[in-house]
Amino acid sequence: MYHPIIGNKAGQITFTAWWIALSAIHFAVFTLFYKISFAQAATDSVISNTLYAILSLGLWYWVRLSDIETSKPASLVINHLGAAALSVTFIVFIQHYTLGLIFETNESYVSFLNDSMVSRAITGTLIYILVVLVFYLIIYIQNFRDKVSRESELKALVKDAELNWLKLQLNPHFLFNSLNSVSSLTISSPEKAQEMIIRLSELLRYSLKQSPDSMVTLENELDNCIKYLEIEKVRFGARLQYSINTTPECLSVKVPGMIMQPLFENAIKHSVAQSANESTIVAAITRKAEFVEICISNSIPQDAFPTSGTGVGLENIRRRLKLIYGTTQFLSIENTENKFTASIQIPINETL
Questions:
Q1: For 258-266, what is the mean pLDDT?
Q2: Secondary structure letter of residue 197 according to DSSP
Q3: For the packed helices 218-236 and 190-209, what is the interaxial angle rounded to 10 degrees?
Q4: CA of 287: how far to CAs of 69, 292, 329, in Å?
Q5: What does the domain layout of the chain look like in residue ranges?
Q6: Homologous superfamily of 154-347 in CATH?
Q7: Residue 169 has what pLDDT?
Q8: What is the mean pLDDT of residues 260-265?
Q9: Could you give the CA distance from residue 252 to residue 351 in angstroms, rounded to a whole number?
Q10: In this prediction, what percent of the chain has a pLDDT beyond 70?
Q11: Does the structure show a pLDDT above 50 at 162?
Q12: Is residue 155's pLDDT more than 80?
């Protein structure tokens, strides 16, 4: 930790102002209460406070060595008592010698100087204690700031790590479903399988470009989702129908990358994947005053048959929203007898 006075311009200004103020008080007390002449009081004040100012600069290093967090209390007290006794005694001796030499012909001042030795020692001890306490306070504040900074950095690292984990979890989940689709087409329709692989490569390229907390325009996110839906249409054919309803002012809003695709995956899982009949997925995107609402709904077919699924999609979204925005309230689900709707609200921040 750098010296709070020597290595800091603001500290130097505060330090200088502090000792000027003490010197002024010293001067006023000696002239008003002890009836010392202006010249004697000014000389006494300047010499005494200059010595203590020099001592206080050096005390920083002693305080740093006597760490209050690692040192035993008894050892700390003994160290400072010894240091105070030595330093104050030395300064009082220098005061007496220097001032006595300057005003050796003034018997009244020399007598005052001799009589004030005890009070000077007490004053010096109080100054020592005050300086040490101030330095310990500075160290405490700096350590507290460092701790807060480290905790913030650690939280950011944990957040990035979890977002990375969620992204790595999402990509294999989607890839698993897509490869199942390709597998089902390789025998029945090789041309469609080839087409699907090409579209899948474009979709994965988009996914790999996104960092865990990257923000993209809604327009780019929708383009990616349409590619995903077209891939699934290769698999399901006319059974899968979809519509996306939005307005131009929504397209420029920034949203987390890859936040919508799991919603469409979930909608397909609850509709066309469970039925031999046609199913329609509807996406409605509207812009409110402070957020954009994305609602993706699908009908639940009456002839639904069970399908397997890992269930990571919606939970992935929930946790990503929690990490990015600090709340899970931006994701809501409504599941009725014949309709499933997943909605997310994305706060609008034009500076993102």
A1: 85
A2: H
A3: 160
A4: 54, 4, 17
A5: 9-115, 154-347
A6: Histidine kinase-like ATPase, C-terminal domain (3.30.565.10)
A7: 53
A8: 87
A9: 12
A10: 88
A11: yes
A12: no
Residues in contact with 8: Cβ distance below 8 Å, sequence separation at least 6, in sequence order: 2
Amino acid at 302: Q
Q: Which residues contact 277 (CB under 8 A, 6 or more apart)?
A: 239, 301, 303
The residue with tokens 């041309």 is 191
Element holding 347 (H helix, E strand): strand 339-347
40 neighbors 27 (Cβ within 8 angstroms): no
Tokens coding 347: 């706060």
CB 292 within 8 A of CB 258: no
Burial 95-121 (b: 16+ CB within 10 A, else e): bbeebeeebeeeeebeebbeebeeebb
Q: Following DSSP, what letter does each residue of 222-279 receive, concatenated?
A: HHHHHHHHHHHHHHHGGGEEEEEE--HHHHTSEEETTSSHHHHHHHHHHTGGG-SS-E
pTM of the predicted structure, to 2 decimals: 0.53
Asked if 245 and 284 touch (Cβ cutoff 8 Å), the reply is: yes
CA distance to 204, 232, 234, per residue, from 192 (Å) = 18, 11, 6
- Using the Cα atoms of residue 307, residue 309, residue 313 and residue 318 in order, give the sign of their dihedral: positive
Instruction: Give the pLDDT confidence score for residue 210 in this predicted structure.
Output: 64
